[in-house]
Write a structure and sequence with these properties.
Layout: H1 3-9, H2 14-28, H3 35-42, H4 46-58, E1 62-64, E2 71-73, H5 75-87, H6 89-93, H7 95-105, E3 108-114, E4 119-125, E5 140-141, H8 147-154, H9 158-167, H10 181-194, E6 197-200, E7 207-215, E8 221-230, H11 236-260
Antiparallel strand pairs: 1-2, 3-4, 3-8, 4-5, 6-7, 7-8
Helix pairs in contact: 2-4, 3-4, 7-11, 8-10
Length: about 260
């Protein structure tokens, strides 16, 4: 083994990685979970899992139900998460533009960024309508079948985009999902040319979206802003009107970022 490889291996601590994976497992579980379930789900030994859970519990990162002996997330994570949210420059700075979009279109406005070949929702302004779309902050979604994801993919340099498309699994979620790579590339080129993207029930039947890119001072795409709502309200007339609104408001957001930076 080369010295270079040894150096690289020393840069990570396996137990820390495992602890984070335990936290993520608990976070994405719909209900509290026990030692055995976590152990089986992550393919860790029961003893090792138990020690990880005890450590996380001691740090108040997770809590244990005294009756069921199962685990859930603790308030410490919520506190850290809120601090991260408050320090996330984009999510705070661009919130007024999400509200403006929501007010002008009546639909939910979202701010997303790319992370590990997927999009992450980092801010949102929910529609005031009774029937509306909403997503949990921190939730993730695929790139290839969401308006925000397609925008972020479209504005990547061609070599980077093509490399990403080799790694992304083009999962078919609905009959409208584009799973042919060449067709997706063609659409991404159109997105880049027009400056906006649609999600026509490609991720979920009954849900449509329109998105546009947010640029930084160097004209790099750093985020996408979208509106999402029931397809029934995304009529041809509304689409034409909302595309102009989305593009204009997102341009204002980009211009503001460039000014303050």
């Amino acid at each position: 083994m080369s010295n270079n490889k040894k150096t690289k291996e020393k840069k990570t601590i396996a137990s820390v990685i495992k602890a984070i994976e335990v936290i993520e497992y608990i976070a994405y579980s719909e209900k509290e979970v026990g030692v055995t379930e976590i152990s089986n789900g992550l393919n860790y030994g029961v003893s090792a899992t138990y020690h990880l859970l005890n450590t996380l519990k001691e740090c108040n990162v997770i809590v244990q139900n005294e009756r069921t002996k199962k685990y859930n997330l603790g308030l410490k994570l919520w506190q850290i998460g809120m601090l991260a949210y408050g320090k996330n420059h984009i999510s705070v700075t661009l919130k007024p533009y999400l509200k403006k979009l929501k007010d002008l279109t009546g639909e939910t406005a979202n701010l997303t960024v790319m992370d590990n070949n997927q999009i992450v929702y980092i801010a949102q302004e929910e529609s005031d309508k009774l029937v509306k779309m909403f997503t949990t902050i921190g939730a993730t979604a695929p790139l290839h079948c969401t308006a925000g994801g397609k925008v972020l993919l479209a504005y990547k340099p061609k070599d980077v985009r093509d490399d990403m498309l080799e790694k992304i699994e083009l999962t078919k979620y609905t009959e409208n999902t584009i799973v042919d790579k060449e067709k997706l590339i063609k659409e991404l080129e159109e997105v880049r040319e027009k400056g906006y993207a649609f999600d026509n029930e490609e991720r979920e039947i009954g849900v449509s979206c329109i998105g546009a890119p947010v640029f930084d001072i160097n004209n790099n795409t750093i985020a996408s802003i979208t509106i999402s709502g029931p397809t029934a309200r995304f009529t041809e007339e509304n689409r034409k009107k909302w595309v102009d609104i989305v593009v204009e408001v997102v341009k204002e957001a980009s211009d503001y970022l460039k000014i303050i930076n």
